[in-house]
Design a protein that fits this description.
- The complex is a heterodimer of chains A (about 230) and B (about 350).
- Chain A contains eight helices and four strands; from the N terminus they run H-H-E-E-H-H-H-E-E-H-H-H.
- Chain A is mainly α.
- Chain A has a domain at about 45-80 and about 165-210.
- Chain A has a two-stranded antiparallel sheet with strand order 1-2. In chain A, strands 3-4 form a two-stranded antiparallel ribbon.
- In chain A, strand 1 and strand 2 form a beta hairpin.
- The longest helix of chain A is centred in the first third of the chain and has 15 residues, at about 1-15.
- The model of chain A is unreliable at about 230-233 (pLDDT under 50).
- Chain B has helices spanning about 1-20, 35-45, 50-70, 75-90, 100-120, 150-155, 210-215, 240-245, 290-295, 300-305, 320-330; strands spanning about 125, 135-140, 170-175, 200-205, 220-225, 230, 250-255, 270, 285, 310-315, 330, 345.
- Chain B is built from eleven helices and twelve strands.
- Chain B is of the alpha+beta class.
- In chain B, the strands form five sheets. Chain B has a four-stranded mixed β-sheet.
- Chain B folds into two domains: about 1-15 and about 65-125, no CATH class; about 135-345, 2-Layer Sandwich (Alpha-Beta Plaits), CATH 3.30.70.20.
- In chain B, a hairpin with a 5-residue loop joins strand 5 and strand 6.
- Classes of the chains: A mainly alpha (about 230), B alpha+beta (about 350).
- The complex binds iron/sulfur cluster (2 copies).
- One iron/sulfur cluster (SF4) binds next to helix 7 of chain B.
Chain lengths: ~230, ~350
């Protein structure tokens, strides 16, 4: 008797639950998305992250989809601006004695790079340990990306200055597929959330430009274990 | 719809049985004046003999508890307040049917109850769906390296039990060349990743647009919100696990024991339908971090992923990343032939 009642309940549930879902009228999710986004109004998120980004949106080209902001780079690199130390161009420094660094403050007026040791026993070295693990030396050396004349800038293949904040312009010269995916959002990462304004991580935010490959490492935890109710064919 | 009323009714009697484990009771007199909607739902429902008896018994039990607590002089004001809250919480209605004020007052009660019990403030929201928003998710199989930073972030964000194995996200390691065959996948790997000749794919609740899990719930404790999130009212769920059986994607997790979260690790930024602390014996699952997403943020897993394999966004925004991916990449969804319309797309570089 009880079983009979249950069957009836199940049957009535099955037939009465015919969905009055308004979404159903579209027939498919894609149609629904298409239709409902016709009158879409952007949702603005409050800036809920500490990331410093250019509020002037970066327009990579005129298509609206590509308007997004990127975080500043120069404020993260702690030795920027580079010409605090690298006053002269590499060429001139080489002529003067081969050391890349000449501090530009008053006390160092007239001092040449060769003379450091006469005053300083120990010299703090900066980024001396950078080794380049990015393509091979036929394709890349320091000068491929860093402007040797004006050290505060990066450089394009055709010797045009590129601001450190726009380093993606350097990367995109070779990695055009990734660049295309990045500017559309299929590569890289959104930083502040899904709404407007869109802020996207730049290439160097994830890839060390001197050693860009994503590394092998251990997982950060043990994965789940099969539990009894688990049944995923 | 008459059928539905009947369903809620039977819940009333079922929930009453659970009350036995709750010893707080309530000072007697005032309770019959309650205009609580849950109370109404229970009282106004058509009844049959069987459930009427059940309800009577349950009513007696509660009554007895209430008398004993009201007669004890030693009870402090706080204890009384706790039992008041418990009483009202116990007879509240289904969240889905509440008005906005009712939603807010249950949230306020829960916040107060936590404060009384733990002396700590939590911040719980009852925020509803944002207009013109339909959440969607994309997962780049070529990018995922199996690091599992997402799972850690998810466990912490969503106040999941720290010992059990019920994480909402699973990462499967599958050998290349075999297609996506979950039965050949390794879900328990622990070695340096990515392993040669293997790829990694994450699964979680896909927030189907046509969710079979919702249809089977006998008490309508789980439903799809206007912004596409499939949510659970943990206080209305009876733990029958029908939904788990109905989900074709292994999206749901049942907690067999009270989730244990060390007090200092509790995420205090909560949502009623999201990461608030759950009790034992209810269904849980990924909510696309409703407490974050309805605030404009990305889910915790998206933020935590170091490879950018996870993309979240508004499907109704024609300029969103997720829309570009769906329209321009080769995407697929799992078991598309079932017609569940998951809002979770996989793609490759
Ligand atoms: S994935 Fe499973 S639990 Fe999530 S909405 Fe779809 S059927 Fe329901
Ligand atoms: S376990 Fe699932 S089907 Fe059962 S009451 Fe809870 S949400 Fe509904």
């Amino acid at each position: 008797m009880q079983r009979f009642i249950y069957i009836i309940i199940i049957l009535t549930t099955l037939f009465s639950c015919k969905t009055e879902d308004p979404e159903k009228e579209y027939g498919s999710l894609h149609k629904r998305i298409e239709h409902q986004s016709e009158h879409y109004k952007p949702f603005h998120v409050q800036n809920n992250s500490e990331i410093e980004y250019d509020t002037t949106q970066v327009a990579l080209d005129t298509i609206a989809a590509h308007r997004f902001a990127i975080p500043k780079r120069s404020s993260i690199v702690d030795t920027y601006p580079c010409n605090n130390c690298h006053v002269l161009s590499v060429e001139e420094l080489k002529k003067k004695g081969g050391n890349f660094v000449t501090p530009k403050d008053k006390t160092h007026d007239g001092v040449s790079a060769k003379d450091c040791k006469s005053c300083h026993e120990y010299l703090k070295k900066s980024h001396w340990n950078v080794s380049l693990n990015h393509a091979d030396d036929k394709a890349m050396n320091c000068a491929t990306c860093h402007n040797q004349e004006e050290m505060n800038n990066l450089v394009s293949l055709t010797n045009k200055n590129i601001n450190f904040n726009n380093s993606y312009q350097v990367c995109s010269q070779c990695h055009s597929t990734q660049f295309n995916e990045w500017k559309n959002g299929a590569h890289g990462k959104q930083l502040t959330g899904w709404g407007e304004p869109k802020v996207r991580q730049t290439c160097v935010g994830c890839h060390n430009p001197h050693d860009p490959a994503i590394k092998h490492r251990w997982p950060s935890r043990l994965n789940t274990q099969m539990i009894e109710q688990r049944d995923l064919e | 719809m008459s059928n539905n009323i009947k369903k809620w009714f039977s819940i009333g009697s079922n929930r009453v049985e659970k009350k036995e484990s709750c010893d707080s009771g309530k000072p007697c007199s005032c309770k019959s004046e309650k205009t609580n909607d849950g109370f109404d739902q229970v009282l106004n429902a058509p009844t049959d003999r069987r459930s009427a008896i059940q309800k009577l018994t349950a009513g007696l039990l509660i009554g007895a508890g209430a008398v004993s607590s009201s007669c004890s002089v030693s009870k402090t004001d706080e204890a009384k307040e706790i039992s008041d809250i418990d009483w009202e919480e116990y007879f509240k209605g289904n969240y889905k049917l509440m008005t906005d004020t009712e939603k807010q007052s249950t949230v306020d009660r829960l916040v107060r109850s936590y404060e009384l019990r733990n002396d700590k403030k939590i911040d719980m929201s009852a925020a509803g769906p944002i207009d013109d928003v339909l959440y969607g998710y994309a997962f780049n199989i070529s990018k995922c390296q199996g690091y599992m930073d997402c799972i850690n972030a998810c466990v912490e964000e969503n106040n999941q039990d720290r010992d059990s194995q019920m994480q909402y996200i699973r990462i499967h390691e599958i050998e290349k060349g075999e297609g996506i065959e979950f039965k050949n996948g390794d879900d328990t790997y622990y070695h340096e990743v990515p392993a040669a000749k293997h790829f990694y794919i994450g699964t979680q609740c896909y927030h189907c647009d046509n969710p079979p899990c919702v249809e089977v719930c006998p008490v309508q404790a789980t439903w799809k919100e206007k912004d596409g999130l499939v949510v659970i009212d943990y206080d209305w769920c009876i733990g029958c696990r029908y939904c788990m059986a109905a989900c074709p994607y292994d999206g749901r997790r049942f907690n067999w024991k009270t989730p244990e979260v060390p007090e200092e690790e509790v995420n205090k930024n909560q949502h009623y339908l999201g990461n608030r602390l759950r009790k034992k014996g209810v269904m849980e699952k990924c909510t696309f971090c409703i407490q974050r997403s309805r605030n404009g943020k990305n889910p915790a897993c998206v933020d935590a992923c170091p490879t950018g394999a996870r993309v979240f966004g508004n499907l109704l925004d024609p300029n969103s990343d997720i829309r570009w991916i769906i329209e321009n990449k080769k995407v697929f969804r799992l078991k598309e032939e079932l017609g569940t319309e998951p809002k979770f797309w996989y793609y490759m570089d």
